[in-house]
Write a structure and sequence with these properties.
Blueprint: E1 5-14, E2 17-27, E3 32-36, H1 43-50, E4 58-63, E5 66-67, H2 73-76, E6 79-82, H3 94-104, H4 109-122, H5 138-149, E7 156-160, H6 168-181, E8 186-191, H7 194-200, E9 203-208, E10 211-217, H8 218-225, E11 228-234, H9 239-245, E12 251-257, E13 265-270, H10 273-287, E14 291-297, H11 301-310
Parallel strand pairs: 3-8, 3-9, 6-7, 7-8
Antiparallel strand pairs: 1-2, 1-4, 4-5, 9-10, 11-13, 11-14, 12-13
Helix pairs in contact: 3-4, 5-6, 8-11
This protein binds adenosine-5'-triphosphate.
C-alpha cells in the first residue's frame, strides 16, 4: 500500500534562499506525524507544497500514491488542511460554516448534514453548533476548523501549528482530538511545541534550514539522541564545581535552571552516563560544597531537539 505521504527530493527556492532542500520523507498510514523545526526551517513551505498551494522548484510529493500538482482535484479529495491562521465567517453558526464548507467540497446536502452531525459530536461542538462562530473561543474555532478539514473523509489531515495560539485548556482539547483523529486519518502536524509532540505524535521529522535532520519514532529519538541529564543543587555558588566538569570527557554541557526562586539548579548533560554516574559523586565531594539535591533526570524532547538542530 502506498504511504500516506511521500516526498522525493522536494525542493523550494526563493531566489537565493533554499527554503526546502531535497526533502525525502515517508509518512505511513494511521499515525500522528510531528513535523518539527525552528523558525524559518521550511515547515510552512513544505506543507504548502504538500497541499498543492505552492509548486516545488524541483522534486515531487505524493499523497496516497498520487502526485500532488497545483489545483489537482483528484489529490485534493485525499486530504484536509487547517492552516495556522484559519479564516472564519464570524456571522455564521458552527453548523452553517460546516454546511458552507461542504458545499465548496461539492458534497450533497444530505451527505453534509450527516457528516456535520458526526463531526460536531467528535469535536465536542454539538451544543455550540447553533451559536455564531464570532462568539467561539480560539480553541473552539480550532476544533471547528478541524471538523471542516475532516468533512470529506480525507485520508490525510494537515495541521499547521494547530495549538500555538491556544491556552492550556484549549490546547489539551485540541491534542485529545488529534489523538482520536488517527483512527480515521493520518495526521501531519507542523509545530514547534515539543510537549505537544511528546503527548500526541507517534513519529517525528526534524528539519532545519530546509534539510531533513532526522526522522524516527519519538521513542527511538529518545534512545538514539538522548544524553543523560543530572540535576545538581548546592547551597552555595557552584562555579568551581562547574569549571571542574569541563575537563571530563563525558561532559557535554551544563546550564542553570532557576527553581522557585531558590538556588539555581545545575543541569549537567553527559554522553557517557555510566562514567558520569561513577565520577560525579567524587567531584561533588571534592568540591567541598553543601549538596542539596542530586538526581538523574530524563532528557526532555527539547534537550534532544536542541542537540539535533545544533548538530552536536
Ligand atoms: N514567499 C517567500 N519569499 C521569500 N522567502 C520565503 C518565502 N516564504 C518563505 N520564505 C523563506 O523560506 C524559509 C522557510 O520559511 P518557512 O515559512 O517555510 O519556515 P517555517 O519553518 O514555517 O518557519 P516558522 O516556524 O517561523 O513559521 C525562510 O527563510 C523564509 O524566510
Amino acid at each position: 500500500m502506498a504511504p500516506a505521504i511521500k516526498t522525493e527530493k522536494l525542493t523550494k527556492r526563493f531566489g537565493d534562499i533554499v527554503a526546502v532542500d531535497r526533502l525525502d520523507l515517508t509518512v505511513d498510514e494511521r499515525a500522528v506525524f510531528g513535523f518539527l523545526g525552528p523558525n524559518g526551517a521550511g515547515k510552512t513551505t513544505t506543507v504548502k507544497m504538500l497541499t498543492g498551494l505552492s509548486a516545488p522548484t524541483e522534486g515531487k510529493a505524493f499523497i496516497c500514491g498520487q502526485e500532488v500538482t497545483q489545483g489537482s482535484v483528484e489529490v485534493r479529495k485525499n486530504f484536509g488542511f487547517l492552516p495556522d491562521v484559519p479564516a472564519f465567517y464570524d456571522w455564521m453558526t458552527g453548523e452553517e460554516y460546516l454546511r458552507f464548507a461542504g458545499e465548496l467540497y461539492g458534497m450533497t446536502s444530505g451527505a453534509i448534514g450527516k457528516r456535520a452531525a458526526e463531526l460536531l459530536e467528535l469535536v465536542e461542538l454539538k451544543k455550540a453548533s447553533k451559536r455564531k462562530v464570532g462568539g467561539y473561543s480560539r480553541g473552539m474555532k480550532q476544533r471547528l476548523g478541524i471538523a471542516q478539514a475532516m468533512l470529506n473523509h480525507p485520508k490525510v489531515l494537515f495541521l499547521d501549528e494547530p495549538t500555538s495560539a491556544l491556552d492550556p485548556i484549549g490546547r489539551r482539547d485540541v491534542l485529545d482530538l488529534i489523538g482520536k483523529l488517527k483512527e480515521e486519518a493520518t495526521v501531519f502536524m507542523s509545530t514547534h511545541i515539543l510537549s505537544d509532540v511528546e503527548r500526541v505524535c507517534d513519529r517525528v521529522a526534524i528539519i532545519d534550514k530546509g534539510k531533513l535532520l532526522v526522522t524516527s519514532s519519538v521513542e527511538e529519538l529518545r534512545r538514539k539522541y538522548s544524553r543523560s541529564v543530572f540535576e545538581i543543587e548546592f547551597d552555595e555558588d557552584d562555579k568551581s564545581f562547574a569549571d571542574a566538569l569541563q575537563a571530563k570527557p563525558w561532559f557535554v554541557k551544563s546550564e542553570k535552571a532557576a527553581v522557585n526562586g531558590n538556588t539555581p539548579l545545575l543541569r549537567v548533560t553527559a554522553q557517557d552516563v555510566a562514567a558520569a554516574r561513577k565520577e560525579l559523586p567524587h567531584l561533588i565531594a571534592a568540591s567541598g560544597l553543601t549538596l542539596l539535591r542530586y538526581e538523574l533526570a530524563q532528557p526532555s524532547l527539547e534537550d534532544i531537539f536542541v542537540e539535533v538542530v545544533n548538530g552536536k
